[in-house]
Predict the 3D structure of the following.
Amino acid sequence: MITRDTLRELAAFQSPAEDAVTFYFQPGVPQDKSHRQEAILVKDLVRNAIASAEKVGKNGNVRASLEHILELSEQLHGNRGKGKAVFASESKKLWREFDVPPHLPSTQLIVNRRFHLTPLTCLSEVLGKVSIALVDRTRARLFEMSMDDVKEVADFINELTRRGRSDGFFGYDAGHAERRVDNETTGHYRRVGERLMELYGTGGIEAFILGCHEEARNYIEKELHPYTLQRLIGHFVADPATTSPDEVRQQAHRILREHRARQREQLVAEVLNEANAENRGALGLRRVLKSLQLGEVQTLVLERSFCATGTECPNCSSLDMARVKYCSFCSYEVQPITDLADAIIGRALGNGADIVYVPNNAQLQRHGNIAALLRFRAERNIAGRVAV
Ligand SMILES: [Zn+2]
């Protein structure tokens, strides 16, 4: 399982020997029964990487990692439809291997000073755990979705109502019985809320989805813990008795997709507003690089295709545009780097920032496909302090 800590650790990694090997495996379509094409592709990638390393005299550094990847790829056979991500460095004795959702842009093999994390950070948006509850007056089924898998974690019935019915009290007093059933239903909904808290506490899920009949929705929500309600991202009409896990997965995917699209739109609008007001928004590479160096970035906003070359200061590690010769912070002579996007992602994760990818956003494209929402503006704070 890839956590934020894993991402941060990989992002902080640097190999002076330039033997950081990143391998992504994206499985082929399920109809492709032989997995021969995949194996041939990986073999070619490894052969090319070895040839490139030989050309610059670094063959010894990367050969063992690449051969290990070749062996691994021969065992993959489509990896049961899952993607694979491998991060290896011979000089640092590092090998990390993960199964990931099969939503990678392609099968890739990259050798560099840092790991290539863009595809993984794109995925990290889908890595959080989502809880889904199907509830009616008599039954509740709780599901959990992580990566693409959905599993059922609880299935319970409204014990009170069942007992009440067998007691045969319905004939006794219609009004009284109705109230009693209402109370018991409320008790059942409350039990759902409690069960969710037992399972996930206050930090175990990224999102919560409710499947129920429309008229029950408000009554159920009233009984949920505020923590669960905060994470509620959508509903769908469902019946716990008849809804299949596959339907749960499809509905959850749809709701999650729509929720994320809304979030991204709001984020871009917020960044643009903040930047226009010269407040907590940074637009374009130059401004984002400066904000990163000042530790201002709260959320880095990128278009998936963002890539750039740049420079890095060997003294203070600040990143800059490709044409710069001397560090703007310490005046050291800077060095060119080909993987500026990976360096930026690494710096942002290291600073505890979130990374959000926004697909095909015309407003973001106007600013070179990169922007950031800032926690604060260092310059302004300093100016403010001086003024006081
Ligand atoms: Zn510097």
User: Anything to note?
Assistant: The longest strand covers residues 149-157. Residues 130-243 form a domain with the Nucleotidyltransferase; domain 5 fold (CATH 3.30.420.60).
